[in-house]
Each structure stands twice: as C-alpha cells, then as structure tokens.
Amino acid sequence: MKSLLTAVILLWVTEASALHARRTNRTCTSSNECLPAHSTCYQSMVCMCDDGYVAVNRKRNNDFECLKIAKGEGDWCSHDLQCEVHMGRHSECVLFKDMNQGECHCKQNHHNVRGLCHPTSHIGDSCKVSDDCYLKRIDIVAYCQASVCICPPGFHPSIDRKECLENKGLHGPCQDDEDCKFPNTMCQGLGYCICQEDYELNADRSACEARARIPITQLG
C-alpha cells in the first residue's frame, strides 16, 4: 500500500512539474489571447504551451516562447530547458559556433543512462544512485553502496578506477598483477596467474604457500 501511495504521489508531482514547465504566466479567457505560437488557454485562466513544448522566458520579462521539447541526446535545441524536460537538470543545450541552435547533451563530467544525465562517479567516488557510477564497459554494472561506487562481486577496480576487472584465480588468464586476486599470486609473462616469488603450490595444487626456508646452519 505504501509503495502504491508513493507511486501515485510521484506521478502527481511529475505531471504537476510538466504542467508548470508549460506555463507562460500570460492570463487569458480564450486561446485567441495567447500570443506565443504553440500555446492555448488553459481552463480560461493562463496561456499554456501545447503538449510537447516547454515555456522559455529568454529575456526574463515574462515574454515567453513555446519551444519544442527535445526527446533525447543529440536532438536540436536552442535553450537548456528543452533538454532538461526529458534528460534532467544535468543536461544542457550545446550551441553550434555562431548559431542560436545546437544539440542536447549531458553536461561535462556527466553521462547518459537510459536517457537521463547523471553526474559521473568512478569506483570509490561518492554517489547517490547506482546510475551515477560510470564504467567504460556497458556489460558490467557498478553499484552505489553506502554512498560509494563499488564493483560487483567477483570484480575489482582498475588502476584508473574507470573499469571493474574480473578477479582471476590461480592459473587464470591475466594482463597484469592487478588481475590476480588469489592470495600470493602474480601475472607471469605468458598471461597466467602464478605463485609469487618465495611461494609455491601446496600439495593439492590449490593454493600458494611460502617456500620452506633452509636454515643457514644446514647449508654448510
């Protein structure tokens, strides 16, 4: 019941926000009194932009325009609000040089997840939701746990913290020592995890144990 109530409230807030974004603040009694193109008189009270358009006050003097809402990244725009309706407040309209037209993109140091822009956090950085956690590979998902981005189980962060690498066991393939997470192992030149120096396989070849040291007195 609580989750249903929350969903209803979120839906109402979303619809209310969308309605507010279309409001031009110009009062009216009929649509003929609404000057901005693509606007109509809402409930005989105020001019509202039509569905699919957002009210933009460029000059900050209540002289609104109704501009087409961008559907996603790369769509044409001339104002940030056109992008923010669907892509969120971390998006912006990047204008082409010497033009008043541009394209919608996520802001610098932000990335797109399912059409919404999120601040980019790498492994170990602070986060609010898991979609904030950015990885180069799209087939692996990082998580926001206790407000920090972490790799999924069985993976560890790369040196630059931009990737989650699979933990490799003894004799597993590797590219560098960071891949070998089995205790006391390292990556050999042929690309396999082996025991580190001064360690050797145990009797059942399942672990790397310290080599037995011969006392100096026995060497003479």
From TrEMBL:
<dbReference type="Pfam" id="PF01683">
    <property type="entry name" value="EB"/>
</dbReference>
<feature type="domain" description="EB">
    <location>
        <begin position="106"/>
        <end position="158"/>
    </location>
</feature>
<keyword id="KW-0732">Signal</keyword>
<feature type="signal peptide">
    <location>
        <begin position="1"/>
        <end position="18"/>
    </location>
</feature>
<protein>
    <submittedName>
        <fullName>Protocadherin-like wing polarity protein stan</fullName>
    </submittedName>
</protein>
<dbReference type="InterPro" id="IPR006149">
    <property type="entry name" value="EB_dom"/>
</dbReference>
